[in-house]
Amino acid sequence: MEESASLGQFIPLHYHYNMLSDTHRLQGFQEAIHAMVRPGSRVLELGGGTGVLSFFAARKASKVWCVERNPELVREARRILSRNPGAERVEVIEADAFEYLPPEPVEVVICEMIHVGMLREKQVPVLSSFKQRYREKFHAPLPLFIPEAAIQAVQPVQQSFDFSGFHAPVPLFQHPYSMQSDTKGLGEPLPYQILSYREDLPGECTWKGEVTVTEAGLLNAFRFITKNILGVVPAENRTIDWFSQYLVVPLEEPLPVERGERVTVSFFYRPGDPLETLSGSLAVMKD
Ligand SMILES: C[S@@+](CC[C@H](N)C(=O)[O-])C[C@H]1O[C@@H](n2cnc3c(N)ncnc32)[C@H](O)[C@@H]1O
C-alpha cells in the first residue's frame, strides 16, 4: 500500500498509552457514550485501539464490535479488556474499517481516527465508505455517530519559533486546554468547515476567505483548530465537545499587519492528507 494511503493508520502502542491519559478526550467520549448509547443497544467501534471507548459503550450496550486493523493492538486490546469487568460484551475484530460491516444493524457507531484539520487519519474517508456500504447491506436508517460533528477553524497568529535561541519556523502542535504564551492571536478563529457525520462528508477542505486583524503584529502563522462535537444533549441544550490538538502552520513570508486590516487566506487539502499538503498550499495576501 502507498504511504499516503496508510498514513495515520498505524499509531505506535506508546501513543495509545498516552491517549489513555488524555483526560479531556476520555471524559468527553465517556460522557457522550453514556448519553447516546441506550441500554441493550448494539454498537460498532471503528479503530478501537486499546478498546477503551468500546469498554465505555459496553457499560450500556448488549454487544460491541470493536474493529482494529493493527494486529499488535488487537492483541493488546484483548489483553487489557480481559481485565475489565463488563468487557465480555466487546468482541475485538482484526479487520480494516474500510471493509468491515457488522453482522447486524447497530444503533451507534463510534469512530475516533481524528487528527486536527482531519489531516493524516482517515476519519472522513472511513465514515464515508462505512455509510455507503451500511446502506447497501442493511437498507436501514444510519446509526448515530459519536462524534456527531466537527467545526474546523483557522486563526491568524504571531508565533514564536524560537527554541532556546534556535530559530525554526516549523509546524507546531499545541495543547488546546493550556495557555500558549508563545502565541499571540491577531484575529478571531474563523470557521472554514462544519461537518456532520450523518450528512454527506466533504471530499476536500478547500478554503479562501478574509480574516480581520484585531491586534497589530507580525502575521507569521495560522493556527488550525478542530472542535469535535462528541454528542448533543438536547434536554440540557448543550453539546459535549473535545478539541483536537491545535496545529500552528508557519507562513513562508511573514507579513506585518495593523489592527483593522483584512488579509485573504487560502489553502487546499483533502481529509487524510499529510500536513505538508496543507502547509504547502497555505497562502496569504493583503487586500
Ligand atoms: C486515534 S486512535 C484511537 C483509538 C481508540 N479508539 C481510542 O480512542 O483510544 C485510531 C485507531 O484507529 C486504528 N485504525 C486506523 N485505520 C484503521 C482502519 N482502516 N481499520 C481499522 N482500524 C484502523 C488505528 O490503528 C488506531 O488504533
UniProtKB/TrEMBL annotation:
It comes from the Bacteria. InterPro entries: Arg_MeTrfase, Methyltransf_25, SAM-dependent_MTases_sf. Pfam families: Methyltransf_25 (PF13649). Gene3D superfamilies: Vaccinia Virus protein VP39. One of its GO terms (molecular function) is protein-arginine N-methyltransferase activity. Residues 43-129 form the Methyltransferase domain. The keyword Disulfide bond does not apply. Keywords: Methyltransferase, Transferase. GO terms for biological process: methylation. This is Methyltransferase domain-containing protein. It comes from Candidatus Nitrobium versatile.
